[in-house]
């Protein structure tokens, strides 16, 4: 199973990227294919904003999404919408770029009031891109993360990890983010 995570946050460290990395770590298989993380903020800005899919780094990211069986999309929620960086990347996908893929939307925001942005703003775009098997969304408030200043990262709370495990359960039984997965997450620097 090829798994691609798209981190749509324009900042680092990022809570939504931490949530994505926890999901990717929980899905990683020791002897299976690896997972790929695409950090949209690290793609070249001018070609991304100009929708130039010929740029080598953007073309590579698009090819990785095309080859994926599972696509995880993570974004902070700003003003009841997903990030502009994520929108710029999703706009580059072909009209059926998510057809046949299992998709999970992950979001973070300042309050529970932004929860529905995933259902009303992001999920329709994912559906328009052909996604038909969309797992239950996972949303976490900023207060549900602990900040590790030494390692410059955010750590999701146990409650968030439990929700994440339930959302990903259809992909592999039994699924629960284990301490080993969190240790692997800690080893990944958040620029």
From TrEMBL:
Domain NADPH-dependent FMN reductase-like positions: 1-141
Superkingdom of origin: Bacteria
SUPFAM superfamilies in UniProt: Flavoproteins
Xref: Pfam families: FMN_red (PF03358)
Entry keywords, A to Z: Flavoprotein, FMN, Oxidoreductase
NCBIfam families (UniProt xref): FMN_reduc_SsuE
Similarity-based family: Belongs to the SsuE family.
Protein name: NADPH-dependent FMN reductase
Organism in which the protein naturally occurs: Ideonella azotifigens
Gene that specifies this protein: ssuE
